[in-house]
Amino acid sequence: MDVNDLKGLFGEVTKRMKAALDHLQHEFAGVRTGRASVTILDGVHVEAYGSKMPLNQMAGLSIPEPQLIIAQPFDHSQLGAIEKATEERRRELSKHVHKLSEEGRNSVRQVRRDANDRLKKLLKDHKIPEDDEKKGLDEIQKLTDNSIKQIDDLQKKKDSELLGK
Description:
CATH topology: Topoisomerase I, Chain A, domain 4
Radius of gyration: 24 Å
Structural class: alpha+beta
Helix content: 55-70%
Mean pLDDT: 89
Largest sheet: 2 strands, antiparallel
CATH superfamily: Ribosome-recycling factor
Number of domains: 1
Low-confidence stretches: none
Shape: rod-shaped
């Protein structure tokens, strides 16, 4: 195996890691933070009057701006409970984003593992010298670190959209 075959391996690794990033971005797009919609609050229940009630039965919901939902409580004494319920919803979405991010990181690590195994097999079969294996392992680690950093950046950005931080 010559250096061009190693470049082919790096190309495949890059392609597979990019696919993992693209998949993560697609999944993040499903976690809505763009244009506000009251349907995002459909699953939110408020602890009030001794039971859990749907938010839309506790407050009037309106969208005065594209990225703003206003909940006006019918009973102002329930304001604290409503704020708590909507904050919990945002935290749930954030946890989901963290889970998706970890799945993305695991996909990238699996690509690294596959590529490293292939390099070790090439060395064992005497198809590449030890120096090329070492350089290959280093290059694959750089690609992995870069992909993980991109995932971390995407996660931070999505978290700030969700939690307003």
